[in-house]
């Protein structure tokens, strides 16, 4: 962490930690995914003055909670959008698991579920027993994801057994 | 994003770093993030403005998808799952999804039946039963 001398003094450690939290929380690491929260500082090393500048660099070791998807992982998410894809007349939906965006194409939705338009577009099972629409909770499997500086997005499926709408804790469509 | 070996959670190929790291279930993350948020509330009138969007979305997500709310229950769940020779990753997926049957558990975490540990269906069912008891008496 780099700090300008105006932050030195009695509150040096506090200033360093605040800056760390501000700089690091909410960012995305290529290896570790989202950095959701810094949970503790392990150590702060000696500061070294950077040549030609008044800034001092401190090595800081810290603990944090990170969140990233894995290929083949099963997790729960909230449906945020159900909409038709105009290009190829397929119907896809987006879900979110916290900051993670998940895209599910209609190829990854069970064959017996059909898209229904209307005020509340949704996917309904042919026997009417299951309806998936915005704000529903679903269990899905991740198949591939990409991480860039601003977001992590992945592709998911609800086509396999034990995946799909969560009607109550422990029960799935 | 891939390392030398292709990642695959079903086979527990998630990289050494993550295999050895401490994994947290949604309910555990919920306790951590809520605690942090409460601390912010004490020093600021508008704590929501102080946190990143990632933090806010993560907090909403883990609160919504926590199967267990009570800290003692959360501790019990971890203790029950820890008795069964699971990796941190497997433990957390089971604690998050709370499958009802051994069949469902193996569908969610295929590696339960591999990696030379051969969890029997009976052992898995017993573990899931213990978990549901915690839920019932929470």
Automatic annotation (TrEMBL), chain A:
The keyword Manganese does not apply. One of its GO terms (biological process) is transcription initiation at RNA polymerase II promoter. It is found in: Nucleus. The keyword Nucleotide-binding does not apply. One of its GO terms (molecular function) is single-stranded RNA binding. Keywords: DNA-directed RNA polymerase, Nucleus, Transcription. It holds the Pfam family SHS2_Rpb7-N. Signal peptide: none annotated. One of its GO terms (cellular component) is RNA polymerase II, core complex. Residues 2-54 form the RNA polymerase Rpb7-like N-terminal domain. Its main location: nucleus. PANTHER family: DNA-DIRECTED RNA POLYMERASE II, III (PTHR12709), DNA-DIRECTED RNA POLYMERASE SUBUNIT (PTHR12709:SF10). Belongs to the eukaryotic RPB7/RPC8 RNA polymerase subunit family. DNA-dependent RNA polymerase which catalyzes the transcription of DNA into RNA using the four ribonucleoside triphosphates as substrates. This is DNA-directed RNA polymerase subunit.
UniProtKB/TrEMBL annotation, chain B:
It is found in: Nucleus. Residues 16-138 form the RNA polymerase Rpb4/RPC9 core domain. Pfam families: RNA_pol_Rpb4 (PF03874). Gene3D superfamilies: 1.20.1250.40. The keyword Transport does not apply. PANTHER family: DNA-DIRECTED RNA POLYMERASE II. This is RNA polymerase Rpb4/RPC9 core domain-containing protein.
